[in-house]
## 1
Amino acid sequence: MTQKTLYYQLAAIALALLFITTIILVVGASPIEVIAAMWSGSFGTVGQFARVIATLAPLLLCASGLLFTFTAGLYNLGIEGQIAFGAIVSTFAIQLTQNALSPALVILLAILMGGVGGVLWGLLTGALNVYGRINEIFAGLGLNFVADGLALYLIFGPWKREGVASMSGTEPFSEALWLPTFGDTDASPIALLIAIVAVAITLITLQGTYFGLRLRAVGQNLRASYTLGIPSIRQLLSAFAICGGFAGVAGALQVLAVFHRLIPNISSGLGYLALLVAMLVGLNAWFILPVAFFFSALNIGSLQLPLDLNLESSLAGVIQGTLVLFVLLGRGVSESLRQAPKNPTS
Amino acid sequence: MRVELQNISKRFGSVQANDQVSLLVEAGTIHGLLGENGAGKSTLVKVLSGFISRDSGAVLLDEKSVEIKTPANAIAAGIGMLHQDPLDFPPLSVLDNFMVGKTGTGFIDRGRSLRQLQQLAAHFNFNLNGYETVNNLTVGERQQLELLRLLSLGVSTLILDEPTTGISASQKTALFEAVKQLAAQGKSIIFVSHKLEDVEELCDRVTVLRHGKVIGRAEIPCPDAVLIEMMFGRELALPLKPQTRQSEAALQLEKIRVDTDRLSLHLGDLTVYKGEVIGLAGLEGSGQELLLLLCAGLLHSASGQMVINGMEMTHKPYQEYLDRGIGYLPADRLKEGLVSGLSIHEHVALRTPARSFFVDWKETLKQTVQAIAIFNIRGKPNTPVERLSGGNQQRTQLALLPVPLNLLLMEHPTRGLDIESVLWVWQQLIARCQTGTTILFMSSDLDEIMRYSDRVIVFSGGQASRPIAVADLTVDRLGELIGGRLSDTMEPLAIS
């Protein structure tokens, strides 16, 4: 990143903050109070902080996966469906094996199968994109509806609770199959560990390996990378598969660590939130940790707003969206200024 | 309408596409704009039609200065352009396409538009069905539609950019009839082409461009030789190339046919020898690039056989061509050859055979520094390729070619390069030939073809001549052959 680009980014963030402050003032609240409320909402108690961590784990997984697809020049909006399908396959694995295997094995298998499910759903998006010539945005969004529909069908059909089926999901699993947590909180060390490993794999792969380099080439110029001898179709499909795999593991974690059953909308919109994280991070994978942490803190902290200040908790979404929009705008402006007449160095 | 362009200049990066170009087209005349590809014809007419903004110069319509900033401005000023590739909406109907761009009050009157379309079509003897989808039309019919659309918008100056490429003979006749009629009505026509016969048949006078400058003007009729001399220049070129041809065959083609939407290329039997340099001459789009893509493994032949270095290569996957040391240098370096956004170092790493999963950035950096020194690239390892000048991009492309290099296919290897780079590039290439590399290259610079080829193949409309030894050629004669007088002077390589 050049010096100038950095200035534009900082200016964009300043503008975004100004805009957010204005919005808060317009709805008749004090920005200071909002910050205080959100701070105490996310870091006030151990339990609240644990919830930030619990949200962070799947967010990191999904954002890491999305860095692969973004690097390959793909907008994988199908990530929500990949989370959901991972959760479904994971639930299926648990139901098949919970009476036969030891809990630890069931959990391990459930996480693995979540990944496998995500890979399959991701590859399906990829195949529609590469072979069916369907834009990956539409293929992904379409498959999101299919995965959601499948989850609903299972919850209200074959996997319905004893007695009456409901939106609250399938029968909860026995407590032995819940991922262990820090004390009596929502945060699971295993989920966090898996997420951090995923971030590390992403960083290393994108910056240090031939695979990562080829992915960047494919993302920047598909045609030239083919001429240079890069198997571009394989690269594109791999990006879909990896992103789907990470998302599927996130789905499994939602099942195992957060809800302890399959519910409709199991992804809780984390895939879309991860898209915002990935867009904000751009191709600088290093920023993924702080940005994802900040976003999950915003999400959890905002739950305090209705209680303390009588404000909608959706303010978190406004803040996140505004930040992303302004930063993208800053990038766009600096890009178009750079392309303005200027002789290339010879 | 009288159209006058005064001292138009336009620069793209390091390329001066138009250099103080002036053009005057009187109302009621057909004015040819002649020149090889890359001469600056398209840039000039795109300035006039609002697609490109000029750096300097003035546009005068009926002796009044006008500002044309967008295509919409141009249409409002009465200037319409018929593009080489029709700018239409293939999934929509002919009628919908016809109505696009009309200004109105918001509601459209399909019935009236249909009647207008039918009237115009009947007037010019075009056969267009308003309800047909444009997808199902031939290029010629799409062109007719576009012409009628522009006329219905009331243009009084019409620009035709290479309109005879890809259309049938009868469509061409109909188009020329229509254009002559329009000129007779007082419209001014600018006819952009590199085809001498078309210009001679249609135009009243021509302006010839070369390397972005006006080289000369002429009234038609005018002898071919004069026009060709203006188009290609005529410095006496002595073959400077040392003898590099060996006796071993490197490339053997048998009865090759390549089909694309626009053109079918038919080739008979052709043998190219190791170390030989073959220049492919011809107007752009005559089939040379198809031969290059075919040999590079980027295009499959519809029939026929290809053997490279004794290896049957017909329909083999592209990767195998790379493994066999076959390299391809596309003309559009930043679109097809290099990846913008990646640095020289990253390009070198991409081409290094992967020994492990991880990139050895230190080792590849060493190789990059070495390549930069050997290929004399003015850039640093971490310079993104799009920041390099054209010459240095070409040097980078050369640095990325497979080693050993058995066969090298090049499109316009020195287009847009300064003289120093041109000489340097060819010095490198000839050194490669001496070690046994075979080169096929296309170029619109006849001097380049004469100077560096051992033999020359001339292409015209998908047909190719037999390879002609450079010693048997002169620039003039080559120019004649290119001008489409292929059949009466020599036996073509093959006719299907």
## 2
Amino acid sequence: MTYNNPLEHRRHHRRMQRAAAYGSGSGSQGGGRGQLVDREFAGRLDWILLGACALIALFGMLMIYSSTHNKDPKDPTFYIVRQGLAMVIGVGVFSLLIRIDYRKFRDFSMLAYILTVSSLFFVLTPIGSTSKGATSWYELPFNFQLQPAEFAKFGLVVALAGYVNEHRGDIDPWRLTVMIGLALIPLGLVQMQPDLGTNMVLLMIVIGILAVGGVRGRYLLALAALGVTMVFAVISVGVLKEYQLARLGIGASAETTYNVDQATAALGSGGVTGQGYLNGSQTRLGFVPEQHTDFIFTSVGEEFGFVGASLLLALFAIVLWRIWRIAQLARDHYGTLVCSGVLAMFTFMIFENIGMTLNIMPVTGIPLPFMSYGGSSLITSCACIALVNNVYANRFN
Amino acid sequence: MTEAKSRVRLGIIGVIVMALFSALFVRLWFLQVGSSSTGFAAQTEANRVRILHEPAVRGSIYDRRGQKLVENELVNTIRIRRGLTDEERKILVPNLAKALKSEGVTKGYVNDRLDSGRYGPYEPVPIKDDVPYKKLVYIKERPEMFPKVDVVRRSVRVYKLFEEIKLIYPSVFAEATPASHVLGYVGPVNKGEQKLHKGEGYGPDDVIGKVGVEQVFESELRGEPRTRKLEVDSRGRLVQVLRDKAAQAGNDVQLTLDLDVQRVAEESLTVAMRKAGKLKDPSIKDRFKTFSAKGGAAVVMDATDGSIVALASAPTFDITEFTDGIPIEKYVALNDPKSNFPLLDRAIQGQYAPGSTFKTFTALAALESGTTTPDEIIQDNGELKFGDPPNEQTFKNAGKERHGAVRMESAIQVSSDVYFYTMGFRFWHAYNNSNLKKGYVIQHVARRFGFGRSTGTGLPDEHVGRVPDRKFKADLNKNSPNDSDRSWLPGDSAALAVGQGDFLVTPLQLATGYSAFVNGGTIYAPRLASAVLTPGGQSELRKLPPQKIGQVELDPAYRTVIMEGLKKVIIGIGTAAEAFRAYGGLPAAGKTGTAEVFGKQDTSVFVGIINPDATPETITDDPMTHQYVIVVFVEEGGNGGSVAAPVAKRIMQALSGDPNPPEVRLIQPKTPGGDR
């Protein structure tokens, strides 16, 4: 065995010790292959992480039903059926990705990058369709849509982690420039939709991976400054529509003020224990706009109160803690980088999304992972968790 | 790149994540636990709940004989439902304007109504009342031309009996209705009233009693509106009906008013005011002029229980004009000073010096305080000097008429000013000797009989008059350079003794005070209604008993002396004897008054009394056995005996059972201010 990484070397020893304690040989991981239930493989998964994600997703289903069952009285389950379907697909994607050793992704990071960029490119062509002022969808049969910008999050994590891993230890200004250049292509394409919210998430992924990738502090600062400049440039160039600006807290629109007021009223009226499931009037009667998607946290706050909302926060904290921990446990640098990217992505999404409903962050269209209605987002989240769990499962290999 | 660096960076990221989560948690705590949830609850409630009201049928109003004065009738109204699309509106507005052209509906009118903020977002917009049946059918049959148009029946105030009276008595009631002031009218509720009646469900399209009985008995007459509490979603669509309470028709009200007496009172006032224009004013300052008689009031009160039998104010107005919102130009005309403020209810808002009609109370004060005895004889030489030269002042009888030797009874009969000035000076001497009990005895008696304060009738905007004393003068003239303006002078006591000076009363106050004197000392709050009836008036829901608000000391012996004088006023050499010639009604008494008003002609005043000698044993349920007080004021009408007394006489004839007494006959005054 050769170790490229001193970290891996040390962990190898720890793994050997634990393997001895389990009483199983180092090559036994292949023993259960082909079986439907692979006990040995299942034992290597991070069930705390999976359990927390599953609970959040089920909580999400409850809240989506609560905030949508009155939309069309003839078809109260329209939204949860679709979300359930997305969940099934998400579980399928998870099962698929968990069985492919994550290091294979490292080898195909260039392919991931090309796929991401082309999907973002073609959505801007007449193949893509426009909704709510943004050209960001692929229309599929049976009234399903794909949102490539969501999958781009996963693609960027895989691709960037691969590139940084390849050049670890010698990220000089030139390499950094190349990396940023490579990152700017998908960011630019997303901006053409336009979707500033997703772009901010992508930017956080870049910063997270580069930070843990060992880029020198002053470069990171420069990068952060560049990011801020870009956001401002985008705003001042006038690519954004007025309502999008207002959402970011620049200028006030009646719509944004209304959204935030309604969200605050919903949360505030929840109190400690909430109004009870299906009983929150703001949720039930649709007073909070986009409540099944971006503002889903408000229905938790209204119907389950502070108790339910903090339970949900705790579940998210568990998820982030496990990702962070797996980043440390990863047997190689690539695994650490992948986890860091996912960690940065989820942290930003959760903080921005919940923060905006609590009126401490500007309003932007960022979904709450595992909770918000939307198949592309859910499937991407599943894929990211599969990736992290893959790192965990292979931490001793 | 070292492993340590990566670990440190990951550690930093962990700390950042924890910090961000702490921020979320703290903010969540603050929002859901730390701050009061009531404000948020109110906001969510306001979001989801809409309360709609539909007015109930308003109650009717009857007079004391059960004649229906005011009732409600359903009229056909055209309304437009909410949710009109732009296309529908383009079709509807011109068609409606065309169809209802002769009703005065134009495109601009319809558009104004549709865009007006007056009507709630869930309530239909009323366009036109009382649309002819043929047009209703035309509109109903063409929904494609008139999308979202409803024809509903709406309940409005009607006055059938008054329409008849207008036809029978056109000389007086062509452009007026009887009892307009006391009944009042209803009108669209305004912002201030909505605030005042918050929580009672008044919508912008509702009506509310504005003045008079309509306002006083608003809560009885209105009934319970149909109240629907709806839950709506964010798009304003109805989700469910949370509550639907059926409307309950308003109760009927039985007034104490007698329409015949009321009508006669108004006729008499109006006719007397017209005729006063042909009387010559004999006073020195206005010689060769006739009386302008710009306004007047009459009150008939049942002294037995305080019931108001008639409450008239002239000039008056036509109450039926207000049924569906009075046209603005008519309202402006009613408020024009040239028309002498017909909307002013002079019976409760007019403040006048009572003149000699107040001598009844001066006499009582003089007897109670021991200032005089019934039999003391005072020499009336037509004038009275007070003080020593050079500050000597002379107080004269009207026209310097000499009445010779008078005692209390005859002093009242002929209205001797010298007699009552003498009493006034005696009061002043007591005042000057710091005997305030005796010095202010007139003021005490006046206040005891209800002057200077509200009568408690409940009618809105009642004025209270004033009873002057030194403190009043000091307050009134506090900026005067002259010290004497702030002192209580002999002339003040003398003027008060004859109902002049700064003393002011409303006609209703004078009626209340006299009623207490007549009935032996019981002060009643004037009562407008005797019972609340069930909707439709079939049965009595609740009696409204007489409201006794006080019992004043009144020595029956003193009352008898004074009453004997009052009975002689209308006979023999009495000041109203000529006016009461051929009276022929129930036993009567009275007192004339001629009040001087600075810069104007004298106010003609008369207080009449029916059944002055009735006792509790003779008073039965029969209204003819009751005691009544009749108060008549005519502004700039001259002598009490020549204008007010003939008006009162005619009202007293009506009270005696003659619904159409002979026409008012005024008496040309011979001497200026022939009485006081």
